[in-house]
Automatic annotation (TrEMBL):
This is DUF1097 domain-containing protein. The chain crosses the membrane at residues 28-46, 58-84, 90-108, 115-134, 154-174. The keyword Membrane applies. It comes from Deinococcus lacus. Keywords: Membrane, Transmembrane, Transmembrane helix.
Length: 198
């Protein structure tokens, strides 16, 4: 049986068309994931509890929300700052320090792939470590960042959040590489079939 050029082209295009048809579903899933992450963050922030729990939820859920789209991450920073500001004396230290560190980490995170994640982690951790070691020397009342619970909570949440990002990006990279290899193999097979039928 003779295989025409049109049949070969259709064979090559089918995987691409299937990939495009899934784009709308992925977009909706990303929107839903980002919105649910922000709703979960709002829930934890309005639920009475220790400041360590609020800090952990803010950092972790903001980083998770960012995985569904960059603006979700920035909205998470803003949401935490708005809802934490003025709640307690600790919040006046938490939201500018942690909010600034989170924003800087997100900006670095958005500048590249998984290779920039260590720099994002450093940019988040260094200001906190600096204020923890020097804050009480600048202002004797600035003792909260030096508490072990503060650094442990913030850094643990950051490492979990960026770890999730690393796993997701490596998975997507491996999936895309496998998909490209399959497309290339399908194209070669279709061309070989077409040449055999001529």
């Amino acid at each position: 049986m003779t295989v025409t050029h049109t049949q070969v082209t259709q064979t090559v295009r089918r995987p691409v068309q299937r990939a495009r048809s899934g784009n709308a579903g992925r977009t909706l899933a990303r929107l839903a994931g980002g919105i649910l992450s922000l709703l979960a963050l709002a829930y934890f922030l309005v639920t009475p509890g220790e400041w360590t729990g609020l800090l952990f939820a803010w950092v972790l859920l903001t980083l998770i929300a960012d995985e569904f789209g960059g603006w979700f991450g920035y909205l998470g920073v803003a949401l935490g700052a708005l809802m934490l500001s003025g709640q307690s004396e600790a919040s006046w230290i938490l939201f500018p320090l942690v909010g600034g560190a989170l924003t800087a980490a997100l900006m670095v995170k958005h500048s590249g792939g998984w290779g920039v994640l260590p720099f994002a982690a450093a940019l988040f951790a260094l200001p906190l470590l600096g204020v923890a070691s020097l804050g009480d020397k600048i202002d004797p009342a600035l003792t909260l960042p030096a508490e072990p619970a503060f650094l442990q909570t913030a850094l643990t949440a950051m490492l979990i959040g960026l770890g999730i990002s690393l796993v997701r990006q490596v998975f997507l990279w491996a999936r895309d590489l496998s998909r490209k290899q399959r497309l290339k193999a399908d194209a070669k097979a279709a061309l070989a079939t077409g040449e055999a039928g001529l």
